[in-house]
Sequence to fold (330 residues):
Amino acid sequence: MPGIARSRQSQRTPLTCRLLIAVRVPLRRRSRGWHFLRMLIFSAHIIQPADETVGGETGRNSKGGRAMCHSESGGGAAVAVPDVGDASSDVSTALLDELVAANHILFDQGVVDAFGHISVRHDKRPDRFFLARNMAPGRVTLDDLVEFTLDGEAVNAKGRKVYLERFIHSEIFKARPDVQAVVHSHSHSIVPLSVVRGARLRPLFHMAGFIGPGAPVFEIREVAGESTDLLISNRDIGAALARHFSESDIVLMRGHGSTVVGDSIKRAVYRAVYAELNARYQLQAMQLGEVTFLTEGECRACVDKVEGQMQRPWDLWLEKARIRCEAVPG
Fold:
């Protein structure tokens, strides 16, 4: 995708993201704003050297250029799996570009950090989907995308580690043919509402009507007992989670995070961003007193009217993500 990971024809001195700046302020004058700025400075990403290898290949995008904001990831909730079947050759390039962009947007908007992932169903083969290899979302490029079957089996991982929780995506795609994109995250304001009984995530402003009467909470103990790591690490647990989406487009996962779905990448990203924002507002409002939530009728109207404008925030978020991690000019 132009501006996130595109080709270049010559080697040049690596650039850092625009947020990597130096500011000197006397200690006695440092405010909250300074500490926030310092956090931004230290969270900025530096481009990899052109010859660094990733998953057995050089860190280049599919068009031959060096990837921007790219890094090797390993360990943690990941596993190396054998490839099954043949990779597709007819997938839309625009769809994959959009998936790369979505990874960067979700990171830039604070929905995901080093963990979390988004997938998209194959546009011509509904029995396949695409998901990045095991890595931080904010560093995903086209070369990091892996094709999977609806059983969670990799088609073209080529030895690269994949997410252990790919079964979140595979089982939802299997259970919900209407779903085209899935976002799983551990966004900070969502998690508290996944563990407090009587404090269900409910929509309180017009951007979050998709939450409906209240988001169900998936309790992994009911499926896998009381000694798990809370991860959706196999098909059975994934199928149990997917059943919670029979009447909802967002499900919280106790002590873990949430998963949202949509009929497009843009809608799924929109919902993930505004679910986190709604949770933040809800936590703040609950400290003030009794909260007035949206009615079911208001939820439906907001989905019909407000979500139709999701291109507007997408364009803004995409531009911000490009600024954060700009491609090296060709």
